[in-house]
């Protein structure tokens, strides 16, 4: 288990972590979702031991590691830029971390052979990083993180440079390693889709503070504020309320609303209409439905019982 207990950090006059407390059980992934500059990477670096908090405590498996340097921790790290040594082969890159942790050469070779087979790089051990695809480089980075048999895995937007197919594969592979090894993991990302697809729990971070935390379905169903809803990438958000797109639907007795735009997508196309009372609204377009023309009128109703009204104090 990872426990971050009232972590506080300032750089000059800017507070980047405001007494943050988070807990991640073994075998689970917490996504810290926020915009650039919100403090999420600093939070990850504190968890890794790369940045010392001004106050607070970091515990891994019940042990206080706050003052322990990163090289003396068993923490796996994955970064956006892969961070592979360009002058070393894949196998040599993988051996570097275990060697620094004092793992004997024979044991290193056994671990490398096993992990390369697990992640599908068993034939690439002698290749140089620049001869690998982006997906292969990130697989190698995952293998390197796992070789030290980490107590904690930290992910700093590691999939952002990959195409959608490779992103999906690497996310699946990473989650499989977390579950198999039963270790806590933290992912920091600005991509709500990535957080929603990977995380067991999401912490929404803004200006150094956690503004809402919960299971993905819980956050989608009831965001606590407009800021939380926007971090989640939700549509139909105003300062005082959120209207789920599923609550907007065609109805014979609905209000005439003009179609302003069609957003086509293989799985979930949407229509944007201008409603006289509610303003601009996104609503789903069922796969079997006819696509209306832009500028045409549709009779639209809103299920008022589904509208989320934000607490002004949130």
From TrEMBL:
SMART domains: AAA. GO terms for molecular function: ABC-type ferric iron transporter activity; ATP binding; ATP hydrolysis activity. Pfam families: ABC_tran. CDD domains: ABC_Carb_Solutes_like. Keywords: ATP-binding, Cell membrane, Ion transport, Iron, Iron transport, Membrane, Nucleotide-binding, Transport. GO terms for biological process: quaternary ammonium group transport. Residues 2-232 form the ABC transporter domain. SUPFAM superfamilies: P-loop containing nucleoside triphosphate hydrolases (SSF52540). It comes from the Bacteria. GO terms for cellular component: membrane. This is ABC transporter ATP-binding protein. It comes from Neisseria leonii.
